[in-house]
């Protein structure tokens, strides 16, 4: 794959008018690529060319560090290896900000060993219309954001992260449900809608009411996200909070949006988050218009600003997340880069996610090339503005 990447880089328009002076960023998942995280923790020079690391520390209903929040536990593979502290130290040596990332609702992932939380607290999980949790298209299991015990546990996890020593440079949060099936038929979710609108989700069958329910879910998720971000800002008022959201969200109809319910632009409008990582498969045919849609939305926001509307500069706060593997495990870095370049997305503002350790050298080759195109005044984000501007490197 390395040879193909090198050839591809010669054809890409890597620097454009939207290019962020801070440079490309990195996303690491210790559950999928522990050896790669270990490699970076042991050698800070591996971070050369990156401006920021988003390190997944809560996922699969587990933590990367020892936790006191129940029903969660530290992932068995991370016990006694102090991986989080060593990675934070490597970032400090490299002059790279380290944002602690949390996938808040995916409590049992399909791509790693189950922590068994569904067996312990099944009533805390969200259900599909048939009453099941997980499907053939998405076997992952999601916690219910409508259940108070879930919200309390996750709030406590974030407080635990925010009060760490050393203090985190920022936070990256995914607050979304399954993109494949409508989850919202648990007792807690049904009671929430009945209490709010005197309707039971199982009785909503026509498209108009289903679309209305999807909008209601968006609003409830936005309220919850604001509460969580408020907790973080109380502890770390100057640390940036980044949404890790569905990249194709605004290319979908309302009923499809309602599945994930992660309206990240609404979170940005209300000031809960300052930036967003856009997570999608950019090369897929149905996603090839995504960046163009966002660009048109940004142009409209600048030309016709509205009270309560999207921030006029929201496009400059977006980071395309570039995965190196498709869900089936086949490589896709070249396809993703081509698709983003064709859409006019700023590759110098991309966040690269080497899904497996074998993809690391290809990612480094790309980042080295992108770093060559950054302006000389590019530098590390200044924390006090929520991560939106850059200051010159010393």
Please bin the fraction of helical residues.
25-40%
Tell me the strand percentage band: 5-15%
* Spatial extent as radius of gyration: 20 Å
From the 3D structure, determine the CATH topology. Answer: TIM Barrel
Strand order of the largest sheet: 1-2-5-8-9-10-11-12
Structural class: alpha/beta
Question: What is the strand tally?
Answer: 12
CATH architecture label name: Alpha-Beta Barrel
Give the averaged pLDDT, no decimals.
89
Return the domain count. Answer: 1
The helix/strand series, from N terminus to C terminus, equals HEHEEEHEEHEHEHHEHHEHEHEH
Compute the number of helices: 12
- The coarse silhouette is globular
Write the layout of secondary structure elements.
Layout: H1 2-9, E1 25-28, H2 34-42, E2 52-59, E3 62-63, E4 73-74, H3 83-94, E5 97-103, E6 106-108, H4 117-120, E7 141-142, H5 148-162, E8 170-174, H6 187-197, H7 207-235, E9 241-246, H8 254-260, H9 264-269, E10 275-279, H10 290-303, E11 318-323, H11 333-343, E12 351-353, H12 360-372
Parallel strand pairs: 1-2, 1-12, 2-5, 3-4, 5-8, 8-9, 9-10, 10-11, 11-12
Antiparallel strand pairs: 2-3, 6-7
Helix pairs in contact: 1-12, 2-3, 5-7, 7-8
Question: What descriptors fit this protein?
Answer:
394 residues; alpha/beta; TIM Barrel; eight-stranded parallel beta barrel; two-stranded antiparallel ribbon
How would you describe what is shown here?
- The chain has 394 residues and is an alpha/beta fold.
- The chain has a single domain (2-374), classed as Glycosidases (TIM Barrel).
- It contains twelve helices and twelve strands.
- It has helices spanning 2-9, 34-42, 83-94, 117-120, 148-162, 187-197, 207-235, 254-260, 264-269, 290-303, 333-343, 360-372, and strands spanning 25-28, 52-59, 62-63, 73-74, 97-103, 106-108, 141-142, 170-174, 241-246, 275-279, 318-323, 351-353.
- The strands form two sheets. Strands 1-2-5-8-9-10-11-12 form an eight-stranded parallel β-barrel. The protein has a two-stranded antiparallel ribbon with strand order 6-7.
- Mean pLDDT is 89; it is low at 14-21 and 378-394.
């Amino acid at each position: 794959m390395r040879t193909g990447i090198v050839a591809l880089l010669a054809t890409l328009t890597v620097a454009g008018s939207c290019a962020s002076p801070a440079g490309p960023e990195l996303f690491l998942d210790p559950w999928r690529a522990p050896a790669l995280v270990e490699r970076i923790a042991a050698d800070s020079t591996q971070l050369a060319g990156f401006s920021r690391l988003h390190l997944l520390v809560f996922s699969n209903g587990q933590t990367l560090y020892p936790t006191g929040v129940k029903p969660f536990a530290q992932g068995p593979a991370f016990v006694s290896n102090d991986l989080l502290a060593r990675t934070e130290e490597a970032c400090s040596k490299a002059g790279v900000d380290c944002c602690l990332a949390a996938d808040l609702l995916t409590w049992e992932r399909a791509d790693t060993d189950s922590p068994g939380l569904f067996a312990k607290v099944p009533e805390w999980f969200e259900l599909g219309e048939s009453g099941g949790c997980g499907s053939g298209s998405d076997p992952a299991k999601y916690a219910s954001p409508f259940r108070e015990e879930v919200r309390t546990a996750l709030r406590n996890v974030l407080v635990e992260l925010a009060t760490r020593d050393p203090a985190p440079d920022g936070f990256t949060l995914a607050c979304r449900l399954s993109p494949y099936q409508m989850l919202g038929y648990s007792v807690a979710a049904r009671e929430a809608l009945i209490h709010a609108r005197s309707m039971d989700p199982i009785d909503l069958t026509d498209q108009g009411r289903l679309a209305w329910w999807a909008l209601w879910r968006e609003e409830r998720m936005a309220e919850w996200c604001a509460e969580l971000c408020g907790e973080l800002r109380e502890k770390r008022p100057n640390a940036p909070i980044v949404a890790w959201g569905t990249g194709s969200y605004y290319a979908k109809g309302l009923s499809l949006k309602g599945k994930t319910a992660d309206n990240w632009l609404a979170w940005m409008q209300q000031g809960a988050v300052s930036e967003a990582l856009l997570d999608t498969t950019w090369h897929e045919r149905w996603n090839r218009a995504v960046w163009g849609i966002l660009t048109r939305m940004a142009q409209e926001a600048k030309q016709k600003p509205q009270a309560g509307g999207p921030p006029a500069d929201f496009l400059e706060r977006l980071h395309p997340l570039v995965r190196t593997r498709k869900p089936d495990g086949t490589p896709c870095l070249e396809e993703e880069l081509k698709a983003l370049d064709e859409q006019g997305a700023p590759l110098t503002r991309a966040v690269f996610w080497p899904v497996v350790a074998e993809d690391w050298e290809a990612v480094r080759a790309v980042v080295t090339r992108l770093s060559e195109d950054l302006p000389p005044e590019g530098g590390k984000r200044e924390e006090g503005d929520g991560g939106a501007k850059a200051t010159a490197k010393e």
